[in-house]
């Protein structure tokens, strides 16, 4: 009994290891300090990486949005640039500048007013060689330009010297900024004057503002011109020297301008701080030159960045912190259990013989503990796997969100082909109902072609920043004719016009852009259909002919023909016999034919009825 009491006392007595308690406490403090520092570093670094990724993602979005903003400006300028070029060759403009008269000026004022209204131009006016405006679209109004002296304007002096010019400046009458595009009117005896169109960029700037981005353009000196932030206009991106200020005042013709710096500062490779409104904010900025469309101009696009970058940084840091806490907790449990197991092993070694039966009990307890630990490890692994799946699902959701944005853009671009597919499908249903299976098959074939066109559109949208007007290459002449007839098949059928084709076997191959050649043929076919309206037995004959290195495509109708006065000025701008026509279709078609290396001419039909036109193109090697 005494021996058993001694054994019980021995078992209840705690084991003490002298000299270890203080050392372990210090080691624990140092370890916790190192772990805390490492934790802070990892959390900070993760946030920094997430912020950098968000910054580059915003930069990619800015680069994707940049062509749209640039194209809206370039498209508006290119549309207006053609007006002075065409009017400079107009016979009425040249005649008025040679022989000024009140009647000629009044008629020309009305013509300029109609063109400016249809084209959406701000002001359209004509200046004589002395620099005085002699006709304008605002003639008769209180702000009329007629009689004003514009010799001081660069767009006048440079157009007289070089043939064409462009200048951004304030209007002397309206005090509104605008882009002036000018073209010289030439005569046999020399320059007759200058045609000028002023375009105010309000619509373009409004579209920029509606996009939610900050968009602005600068000239060679960094002076802000067109902008979605009006208070930045005529400010400078960086301080200008006295000489640069004088040059800018002269070029922009702003005598009192000080060109105050724009509240914009760079804080990284892609980030800038700007104050477009009442408070400063961070933006991701991209800038590119606008090229030949607007020489000397550079466009910048700024996307708000503070909210998205801060959100990405905070999300990354919180996620990292939670993950590290979870890993630390698991590690702590494992270490603690291993430490307890080690201590138990040490106790078992010390007791050895005296507590052999206790060793067996402790061994069994240790085995149970190991089994429990294995179960917990498996449970932790399952939790980690669930976290990993959740992360993958979040990544997939993000990819689907981006896909939705792309799909919205593609849906807008393919609207017209989808409408055409619907029309062909409805026609196929009606034709199938009346038993016209061959026509139904043709409509279904057209639907297949339209789906191919949709594929072409989606491919074009992926590379729309490099989009061109149509590259030249070898094409079958019959393919272009088939395409033009397909585009006008509905109108041809409704008008009752008979199309007669004279083919050559094999079909000749020409060097052209199919899209632009179809544009010429569609224009000529539309003119023929207009001429054949209300004519008995209307007919259009399309013929191919080879002449050495040239291939001719002729279109002849059996309509009433052209009046002699129309034939004499057929390819002059604004000459037409249609009530609502502008007289530019044949002019544009002739220019396209020249760009393709060929020609477009009117064939004299003699005293017979009908009209005939011929397009000549180079044969492909």
TrEMBL record:
Molecular function (GO) terms for this protein are: ATP binding; phosphorelay sensor kinase activity
How is this protein situated with respect to the membrane?
A: Multi-pass membrane protein
Keyword Coiled coil set for record: yes
Q: Which domain of life is it from?
A: Bacteria
Q: Where in the cell is it found?
A: Cell membrane
| GO cellular component terms, A-Z | plasma membrane
Q: Which EC number(s) are documented for this chain?
A: 2.7.13.3
Positions of transmembrane segments: 26-45, 314-335
From which residue to which does any coiled coil extend? Answer: 373-400
Q: Locate the Histidine kinase domain: which residues?
A: 409-621
Q: What Gene3D superfamilies is this protein classified in?
A: 1.10.287.130, 6.10.250.3020, Histidine kinase-like ATPase, C-terminal domain, PAS domain
The catalytic activity, as recorded, is:
ATP + protein L-histidine = ADP + protein N-phospho-L-histidine
Phosphoprotein keyword on record: yes
Q: Which UniProt keywords apply?
A: ATP-binding, Cell membrane, Coiled coil, Kinase, Membrane, Nucleotide-binding, Phosphoprotein, Transferase, Transmembrane, Transmembrane helix, Two-component regulatory system
Q: Name one Pfam family in it.
A: HisKA
Q: What is this protein called?
A: histidine kinase
The scientific name of the source species is Mesorhizobium helmanticense
